Amino acid sequence: MYDTAILIGRFEPVHNGHLALLRRALDSARQTIVVMGSAWQVRSPKNPFTWQERAAMLCDALPEADRARLHVLPVRDYYNEARWVQAVRASVAQQVPADARIGLVGHFKDATSSYLSAFPGWTLIPMERQGSIDATTIRDAYFGATPATATAALAPLADQIPASTLTALGTFAQQTEYTTLQEEWRVLRAHRQSWAHAPYPPVFVTVDAVLRCRNQVLLIRRAHAPGKGQLAVPGGFIEQRETLWQSCLRELAEETHCAVSEAQLRSALQSVAVFDHPDRSQRGRTITHAHYFDLGDMPLPAVQADDDALQAQWVPVAQLTALEDRFFEDHFHMLDHFLGLTQGR
């Protein structure tokens, strides 16, 4: 018997395979900690539910006595495994004594399960996969339906989904967020189908501009799906006859009409960082090159939204952490990389 059993997952949404792992954790230890991944992510077809909604699905599927032994720890996606592992360990350390005997419940289903090997000192409690269901299948059936037909669309999968999850999905389908996510799901599906017959999966290359001035950052609000209405830094796909630098300048100009010359930007360039986590974009394997500029204390350049931007605005750095759950893809973490937004949090 362990002092604490750890179960790590996203649970988007909770299904019977998740519950089997959770049952194993509860049977193996005095208390169970669920590390809830993708916390504070903006809603998307891959991450449609807040961590609180997913925690409620888990708890509602358990008897009252087991709920008392369950603690949910939300952890953000850092798109950096070493930093994520450090955050998980730090969060767990706040809940258990240093000498606690800890077990980690899980099974190696594919490359995404490699994290199970990243916690030396925690004993792996292996478990075979339970059933054939996965959350992606549920989400595709769910978002391929309509508010009126969502329950019927899930009926063929209902025997593999807890009643608490089915109830939550039925309720959510009546909210405006559901139809917004449906549009996102359709756009992403069409995008992936457009290159489905390529001889091998393509790798997309993009650029982004993190522009700082007077301790404010230039952000856009995206005009189209995916990410319609979400905050982002200016950027986009590189074109065939462009260098990364040329693409960065073009995207910045097209989306914001930022009144800064190329010479000023070249002088203000502090660094370029590559963001290449395999899961950073739902559009496919997308590697971006983020250019970080600091214009110092010069007057804020005039900006005007255009092209793929619905709005362009200067936002104080001090306000960014409160906006974390409104950012497109990993753009908050891009800002965090350059500005240290989550240090000490």
UniProtKB/TrEMBL annotation:
Keywords: Hydrolase, Nucleotidyltransferase, Transferase. Residues 202-338 form the Nudix hydrolase domain. GO terms for molecular function: hydrolase activity; nucleotidyltransferase activity. The keyword Thylakoid does not apply. InterPro entries: Cyt_trans-like, NUDIX_hydrolase-like_dom_sf, NUDIX_hydrolase_dom, Rossmann-like_a/b/a_fold. SUPFAM superfamilies: Nucleotidylyl transferase (SSF52374), Nudix (SSF55811). The keyword Zinc does not apply. PANTHER family: BIFUNCTIONAL NMN ADENYLYLTRANSFERASE_NUDIX HYDROLASE (PTHR21342:SF0), PHOSPHOPANTETHEINE ADENYLYLTRANSFERASE (PTHR21342). This is Bifunctional NMN adenylyltransferase/nudix hydrolase. It comes from Simplicispira metamorpha.
